[in-house]
Amino acid sequence: xxxxxxxxxxxxxxxxxxxxxxxxxxxxDLPKTVSRLKSSISKLETQIKNTLKEIExxxxxxxxxxxxxxxxxxxLKKYQNQLYNVTSNKEYDAITNEIEMKKKEIEEGxxxxxxxxxxxxxNQNMVKEYSEExxxxxxxxxxKEKELNALLKAxxxxxxxxxxxxxxxxxxxxxxxxKRYERIRNxxxxxxxxxxxxxxxxxxxxxxxxxxxxxxxxLQELIxxxxxxxxxxxxxxxxxxxx
Length: 243
Description:
The chain is mostly helical. It folds into 2 domains: about 5-20 and about 170-235, no CATH class; about 30-155, Orthogonal Bundle (Helix Hairpins), CATH 1.10.287. It has 5 helices and 4 strands; from the N terminus they run ααααββαββ. It has helices at about 5-25, 30-80, 90-170, 175-185, 210-220; strands at about 195, 200, 225, 230-235. A hairpin with a 2-residue loop joins strand 1 and strand 2 (about 200). It is rod-shaped. It starts with a helix and ends in a 9-residue tail after the last strand.
């Protein structure tokens, strides 16, 4: 393959990539918006799931403490009944001490239960808020997906044709040249091949020295702009590749 043919393939590939870029650009922020909405919904689902787990955990702990409080109340009644049967001050003091301990245990348990009930009320409110927010995001997502799908449908045929053409162009270029093209394109906002227009680079618009213009017009090697590094081609001297 001659250098002229290589440059024609590169110029054609650049045109295809430009058209693909404009198709993507025409979608605006819709793809990113759809992706962001899906991500937000996923995060809310995780928050709802984790909060529900926390509610279950607190509920299990509350039931456990309620059982302990119930046992403490039974023992308290038992100790209170034993007071009527004491026969010594020592025995009276021991039972009184047990009664006070059980009262304290019951009070602490009841306080914990109240705190847990309050915590789960807050958790339930959070689940409600998350769920409402999620429902709204789902509505927004459906609306944006509908817009995006309509746009994709309108451009699907052209995009498929361009991607097919791109594949046919890339397979005809040596890997080394293709990698060079892709490296420049990725570094220069999607534009790797530009014509010399009015003695200036079509990418950065800096003046090209006359000798370099002559070399570019010979079509014998890949020549890059000294300023921006894009591949230079002569204007209107290459034939587009029709595949």
